[in-house]
Amino acid sequence: MSSDKESNTGVRFDWSADTDSVVFPTVRAVAVYVNTNDDVVIRQEAHALEREDTLVIVPRVHVPALIAALQAAVEDGED
Fold this sequence. Notes:
By secondary structure, this protein is α+β, with helices and mostly antiparallel strands. Helices cover 19% and strands 22% of the residues.
């Protein structure tokens, strides 16, 4: 794949404008674990400009409903 974007360090690559060249966007890490209160925690890595990670705390009893809703969202997106 050859183009004028090839390793020219003097040219700034525009990640938001050059969508044809971007294979996939940045994805922040996601962790899932059980906390000391026996809740399921979904934690997303903080963005570079954020000070703290984003947390979603789900009581364990509600996890099956969350999984069902996530599965339904995935299946709806496959149409």
